Amino acid sequence: MKIMRLIKAYADFIETPAGRTTAKRLQRESVAAVLGGKSDPAWETYMKNFHSNSAQLQRLLGNEGTDKGEFMNPDSYGPTILVYVGMGGTCGTGTTMKSVIDMEVGLQQFLDDGVNEATVTGQGAVIPPELEPFLQD
Questions:
Q1: Contact 51, 42 (CB under 8 A)
Q2: What stretch of H or E contains 74?
Q3: Is 52 exposed, middle or buried (0-12, 13-18, 19+ CB in 10 A)?
């Protein structure tokens, strides 16, 4: 499952009355992540919401390489994308994840590029059951 697909599922779920508690949790986690930075355990706690395999989690944690062509290269979009995802949960009284959903398509594709082939879940990858209806095509 793509990272952006999970983010969109959360965005849809938190717009429902049943998603209010999740929205508040994401907001708290997002604020802690942004204030603590990507080396803080709060960053990992927040980013674990949006992965379905260990390669995706490593990308969201910013643990990929910084060489040319790699996701975290300072001249690439990777660091900017992680800022969008990190701050996405802070919107509004709960959250809307709108800043992430509204990223230009190229940035969304760059976030997912190359980390969706792995199907082995790991490092706490659990899709919450309440998101399942929002993951149906």
A1: no
A2: none
A3: buried
Whole-structure pTM value: 0.85
pLDDT tens per residue across span 26-82: 999 999 999 999 899 999 999 999 998 888 999 999 998 888 888 898 888 999 999
E strands in 1-137: none
Instruction: Residue 73: name the closest of 62, 83, 84 by CA.
Output: 62
- Judge whether 38 and 62 are in contact, CB under 8 Å: yes
> Phi and psi at residue 100, in whole multiples of 5°?
-80, -45
CB 54 within 8 A of CB 125: yes
- What is the distance between the alpha carbons of residues 49 and 57, in angstroms, rounded to a whole number? 9
Phi-psi bin for 37: left (phi > 0), alpha (psi -120 to 50), beta? Answer: left
